[in-house]
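Worked Example 4.2. Consider the chain below.
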Amino acid sequence: MTNAINKTAYVYVSNAKDGTVSRYSFDKTPLTMGPLGETPVGPNVMPLTVSPDKTYLYAAVRSEPYRVVSYRIDPESGALTEEAVAPLPDSMANIDLDLTGHFLFAASYGGHKISVSAVNKLGHVGDVIQELATGRNAHAIHPSPDNDFVFATSLGDDHIGQYCFDEVTGKLSKNVVGMVASEKGDGPRHFVFSPNGQYVYCLGELSGVVITYQYDESTGLLSYKSAVQAVPSDKLGLVNGVPPSKSVQNDHPPVWAADIQVTSNGQFLYVSERTCSIICCLQVEPKTGRVQYQGHVEVEKQPRGFALTEDDQYMVVSGEAADHLGVYQLNDQTGMPVKVSEVPSGQGANWVEIVEF
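Applying the procedure from the previous section yields the following structure tokens:
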């Protein structure tokens, strides 16, 4: 990991129950994270994403009318100014931009579909230009590092859809191999590319595994490489890696993994799990992509989302059932998080974005 460099940084957290996005300042020398206020958005505001040039924050609302709001970020104060509202075709669990910032992708869990919306020259999301049916429960959608391909998970059908992307028209088309499967019952949810672009790490929500795929940039296809139990079996009462048939807590699945993030140097992966409210740390061998479980720490209740600072030094964790955010320092050698601070949060805090200038 690199030494911390103090930049102007802001943390944005969507609060589904409050219908707001909370804003925070984040300073590393000395470490302080302070509230700056809340921006009203709408009930069930959830997924967030930031434009490649850090000019805009986009927030998707999962209550009717389904929509995405474009906010300009003030780099001097962290304030958000609403500049545009555009319709989305369904309740979207995830949004992301292509690398040019000209198109917004969205994935609908309940609608079993993905969509593409145009982004104009001002950075405002506009009309939906394409909808595509997917397997059941589309959950995450992201472009490849070269911007030539797009991938979308289908949690209910245990696969990742593979698409070709035309960055001129914004249109998606199925690749020659339309999907790559995971094990039955994994429930592929969120995924990240390794910083070197060679691997995709996908989190199984229902199994707690991290699946590693090799990425072929010439074809845009993924190939299965390995799977590692990221959420420890003994923590969840698994038997030979198999979850019990019934829920163990509050009608939640015995495994209820949520988010996955990778450090910018590619050395560590982090996974959140909501039934036990833990963050798991995995070590990665960047050249081979090999993943190994390191350990876990207890964090805020039901940690749905979290984010890392650019220098790999800190992590901010939200808890859907907590009244605060946790700030954690990451050990340079082991990658393990250590809690150093907490700040109040809104209700139903779920998505975290850190923007550094």
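Residues 237 and 243 are 7 Å apart (CA to CA). The mean pLDDT is 94. Compare this with Example 4.1 before moving on.
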